[in-house]
């Protein structure tokens, strides 16, 4: 026992080693692993077997080992190795069974183990794959992390740069401000210095002036042969207050002359422009359709009529002496009217433009934008609409015509419609009535034929009764000679038997149906046939009866009998 | 196009008389008066020193010659060759001299702008005007010659004095809102005076004849401002060229800016015609050259021909990067002039020295750009028609008209480096001036059409 344990442990350990190897040797391909497995797995088994045979059971401890095995097996749920009746006797059969079962188990276990190993391999490879994936993902993660870090770094740098730039900008701005201040201060300083220097310079100039001019400089002189006359030939006038005033006057004259000239120019320009405006206005009026013009004017401003009146006045004025009147009112009128017309013209032109553009875009869309399907759908819809409209128009026309045709004076269409409906209904009813009458006639005719048939039937029945009487008589006469008439009687009773409720019901039904079903009743020839049948049937039933006693299948007999009976019954009921 | 022979000249002093009959030219201390038609010498006056300035009186009867170094002005009469007049400013010195519009008074500005002396040729009277401002355009006469505006400086403030020229009476005296006035200019109609501030500040003020301030205009602050100003002949527009390479045009009704003409280096608008002067070196056929070349041959060899090509836009013009650390930088609109018919405006951007922009004033758009091979020295409109004469300091003269432009070689044996030119009042001829010589250039009428 101790031995076994010591031995089994290495086996287990080896197995576990294999598994470890499997798990540890990840990089091996599954196929190679499998190969290894295959190569290795039998080895330890074999080893263990060998150790079993060598160590477990010897000649000496057969009994012990058997008992041990027995115990072990029983604990594992196998039947006892010993036979139950006799103590301590090895039951070979059970041993064999056990062995067999063990072998089976072993095989199953092996298979299971194999499966498990395969699965293990699969899982291992899956694991590998997953680990690979994991590694890859991890790498990616690492890479992206690095990237993120890089980007963050760059971002930081950019921000840093930005900050620096901002700082620089601020510095620059400050610098600019400072420089401007410096410039300003320098300018003021410069101006100040300049002024100082200029003052000094002026002082010097003054001094120089005094020195140079006041001293009687003989050199400063004009040496002229004789004075020449003025250009205008006049003598120079004395400088007095008068001359000053005259000079002023002249200056203003010059200025005035300048302004007058300018005004003249402006007037000419104005006149030209007015002329152009007037012409434009006229052209606009002629261009714009007159009927369009009026309502728009009124729509646009409430003072339209007044303005137009004024306009007329202006036009009248215009005819006379427009150009002389450059006063405010005329100008206003002109500008107003021009503005108004211009607005109208603008609207008009815009409208035209819109139309053109729309047409253009429509053409464009037709070729490019709107798909053919949409187009077709639209056309279909439109066609449908057209159809509907046409129908509506038709009905309306009809109604109109009806209205025209109808002599009635009242124009109320509802009444008319009602009348129409009533008429229609009446017609329909009349038709139905006609049909009904025809049907009724048909029915009459049929009834007559039925009654005739019934009369005929009655006659025939009488004849038949007579025939039967005679026939029965003949039968009776012939039967008296026979001894076996019991059966005949039976059959007779069956024929005449009214005890059967089914039969009665049938009878009742047939009677009820009679007036209706009469036409379907076969004529006399058929009737005759049925009559002829009866003896046949009776014969056959006899035969059948005979056969039932002979043959085994009873069901058949009964069924046949019942059928025959039914047939007979029906035939009988039909007789009535 | 015909050219006269070459005459001697000094200091570029060559002037047509206002009536168009005479031509005055100075050679050292001699003043030579010629007949414009045949260029024969009519009079020859000898001055006391080298003439530095000369000016015709408005009636073409007198001509003054100023010798600033000696502080002397000499006046000569054409009608009376014996008549003479000498004005000596003595120790006060002389920096400028000019005629009054009536042609009977001479205005002398003394050194240091101490005063302006008004000498009359009719009477003995002498007038003094104190405190004139030391600036280039400090005196302005109206076109009709009635009024004179004078910039003054007193107590560190700018003032304008308006004088009546007939009797030199002060008509108006008012201060201007300028830091340091640098120029004044009357509108051609004589009713509006434009006053502009120093280049440190962009500011232009418009005054009426009676001293009212009509309007003030300032385009921007801080950077250098106005460089040149020109009235249109109709007084309708005032063109202001500034250091920001733009010309702004003000209108005469509201005195607000109508438009702004930029002068970019690159011209991309395909509607603008760009004429580019291209030099075509003379056909040098080496085998035909004799070793000691004849003189005429040599001159023709070295004179290159040039013509205008129409450049395909976009065109990038040659530009000079201005030196910013020096005063008066070569940048901005330094020259601008309206054509006499008011239709065109010619401008020159100083940092694109080879190009002239010609603007259509009616459309207020750039019309033509001329790109020369050399820097433009001067351009002047024909006084009668829209025709622009240009000189670039070489031996050629260039003419532009709306019909096109031509480059004309001055056919002289010695190269005449045209530094300046002046039109005759008829527009039929012009004088081309070089450092030492001048010649007349006659234009045929039919050629113009």
TrEMBL record, chain B:
GO terms for biological process: mitotic spindle assembly; positive regulation of non-motile cilium assembly. Coiled coil: none annotated. InterPro entries: Centrosome-WD_assoc, Quino_amine_DH_bsu, WD40/YVTN_repeat-like_dom_sf, WD40_rpt. GO terms for cellular component: centrosome; ciliary basal body; MWP complex. Pfam families: WD40. Gene3D superfamilies: YVTN repeat-like/Quinoprotein amine dehydrogenase (2.130.10.10). It comes from the Eukaryota. This is WD repeat containing, antisense to TP73. It comes from Chelonoidis abingdonii (Abingdon island giant tortoise).
């Amino acid at each position: 026992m101790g031995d076994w344990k010591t031995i089994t442990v290495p086996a287990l350990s080896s197995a576990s080693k294999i598994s470890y190897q499997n798990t540890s040797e990840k990089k091996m391909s599954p196929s190679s692993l499998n190969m290894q497995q295959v190569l290795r797995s039998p080895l330890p088994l074999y080893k263990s077997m060998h150790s079993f045979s060598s160590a477990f059971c010897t000649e000496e401890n057969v009994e012990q080992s058997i008992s041990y095995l027995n115990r072990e097996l029983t604990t594992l749920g196998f039947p006892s190795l010993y036979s139950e009746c006799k103590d301590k006797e090895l039951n070979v059969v059970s041993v064999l069974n056990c062995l067999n079962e063990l072998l089976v188990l072993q095989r199953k276990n092996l298979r299971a183990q194999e499966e498990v190993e395969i699965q293990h391999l699969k899982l291992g490879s899956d694991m590998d794959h997953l680990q690979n994936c994991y590694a890859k993902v991890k790498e990616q993660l690492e890479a992206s992390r690095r990237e993120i870090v890089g980007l963050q770094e760059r971002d930081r740098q950019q921000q840093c740069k930005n900050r620096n730039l901002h700082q620089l900008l601020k510095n620059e701005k400050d610098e600019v401000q400072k420089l401007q201040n410096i410039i300003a201060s320098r300018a003021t300083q410069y101006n100040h210095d300049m002024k100082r220097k200029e003052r000094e310079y002026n002082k010097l100039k003054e001094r120089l002036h005094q020195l140079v001019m006041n001293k009687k400089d003989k050199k400063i002189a004009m040496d002229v042969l004789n004075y020449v006359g003025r250009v205008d030939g006049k003598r120079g006038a004395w400088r007095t207050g008068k001359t000053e005033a005259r000079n002023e006057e002249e200056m203003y004259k010059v200025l005035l002359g300048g302004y007058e000239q300018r005004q003249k120019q402006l007037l000419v320009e104005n006149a030209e422009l007015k002329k152009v405006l007037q012409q434009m206005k006229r052209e606009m009026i002629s261009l714009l359709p007159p009927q369009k013009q009026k309502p728009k004017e009124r729509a646009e401003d409430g003072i339209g009529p007044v303005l137009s009146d004024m306009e007329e006045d202006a036009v009248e004025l215009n005819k006379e002496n427009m150009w002389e009147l450059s006063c405010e009112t005329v100008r206003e009128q002109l500008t107003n009217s021009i503005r108004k017309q211009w607005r109208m013209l603008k609207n008009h032109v815009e409208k035209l433009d819109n139309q053109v553009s729309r047409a253009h875009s429509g053409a464009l869309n037709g070729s490019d934008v709107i798909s053919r399907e949409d187009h077709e759908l639209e056309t279909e819809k439109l066609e449908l609409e057209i159809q509907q409209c046409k129908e509506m128009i038709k009905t309306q026309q009809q109604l109109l015509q009806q209205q025209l045709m109808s002599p009635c004076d009242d124009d109320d269409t509802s009444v008319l419609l009602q009348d129409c409906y009533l008429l229609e209904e009446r017609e329909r009813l009349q038709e139905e009535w006609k049909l009904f009458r025809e049907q009724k006639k048909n029915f009459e005719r049929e009834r007559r034929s039925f009654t005739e048939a019934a009369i005929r039937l009655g006659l025939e029945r009488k004849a038949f009764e007579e025939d039967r009487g005679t026939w029965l008589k003949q039968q009776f006469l012939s039967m008296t000679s026979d001894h076996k008439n019991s059966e005949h009687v039976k059959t007779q009773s069956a024929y005449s038997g009214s005890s059967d409720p089914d039969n009665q019901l049938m009878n009742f039904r047939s009677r009820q149906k009679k007036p209706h079903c009469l036409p379907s009743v076969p004529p006399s020839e058929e009737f005759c046939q049925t009559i002829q049948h009866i003896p046949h049937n009776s014969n056959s039933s006899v035969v059948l009866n005979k056969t039932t006693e002979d043959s085994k299948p009873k069901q058949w007999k009964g069924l046949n009998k019942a059928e025959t009976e039914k047939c007979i019954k029906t035939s009988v009921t039909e007789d009535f | 196009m015909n050219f006269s022979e070459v005459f001697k000249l000094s200091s570029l002093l060559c002037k047509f008389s206002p009536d168009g009959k005479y031509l005055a030219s100075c050679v050292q201390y001699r003043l030579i008066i010629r007949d414009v038609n045949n260029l024969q010498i009519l009079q020859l006056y000898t001055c006391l020193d080298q003439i530095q300035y000369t000016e015709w009186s408005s009636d073409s009867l007198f001509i003054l010659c100023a010798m600033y170094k000696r502080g002397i002005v000499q006046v000569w009469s054409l009608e009376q060759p014996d008549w003479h007049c000498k004005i000596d400013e003595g120790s006060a010195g002389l920096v400028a001299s000019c005629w009054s519009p009536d042609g009977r008074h001479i205005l002398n500005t003394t050194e240091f702008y101490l005063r302006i002396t008004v000498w009359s040729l009719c009477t003995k009277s002498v007038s003094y005007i104190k405190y004139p401002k030391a600036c280039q355009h400090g005196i302005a006469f109206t076109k009709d010659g009635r009024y004179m505006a004078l910039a003054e400086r007193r107590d560190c403030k700018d003032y304008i004095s308006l004088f009546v020229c007939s009797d030199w009476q002060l008509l108006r005296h008012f201060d201007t809102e300028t830091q340091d006035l640098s120029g004044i200019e009357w509108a051609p109609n004589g009713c509006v005076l434009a006053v502009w501030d120093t280049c440190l500040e962009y500011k232009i003020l418009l005054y009426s004849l009676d001293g009212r301030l009509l309007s003030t205009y300032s385009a921007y602050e801080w950077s250098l401002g106005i460089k040149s100003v020109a009235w249109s002949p109709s007084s309708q527009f005032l063109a202001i060229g500034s250091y920001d390479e733009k010309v702004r045009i003000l209108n005469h009704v509201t005195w607000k800016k109508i438009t702004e003409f930029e002068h970019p280096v690159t011209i991309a608008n395909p509607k603008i015609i760009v004429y580019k002067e291209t030099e075509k070196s003379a056909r040098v056929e080496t085998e035909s050259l004799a070793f000691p070349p004849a003189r005429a041959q040599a001159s023709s060899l070295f004179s290159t021909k040039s013509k205008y090509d129409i450049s395909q836009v976009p065109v990038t013009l040659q530009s000079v990067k201005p030196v910013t650390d020096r005063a008066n930088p070569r940048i901005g609109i330094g020259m601008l002039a309206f054509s006499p018919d008011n239709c065109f405006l010619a401008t020159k951007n100083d940092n694109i020295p080879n190009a002239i922009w010609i603007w259509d004033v009616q459309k207020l758009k750039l019309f033509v750009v001329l790109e020369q091979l050399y820097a433009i020295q001067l351009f002047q409109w024909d006084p009668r028609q829209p025709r622009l004469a240009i000189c670039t300091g070489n031996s050629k003269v260039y003419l532009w008209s709306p019909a096109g432009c031509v480059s004309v070689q001055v056919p002289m044996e010695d190269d005449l480096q045209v530094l300046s030119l002046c039109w005759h009042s008829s527009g039929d001829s012009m004088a081309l001036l070089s450092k030492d010589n001048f010649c007349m250039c006659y234009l045929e009428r039919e050629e113009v059409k």
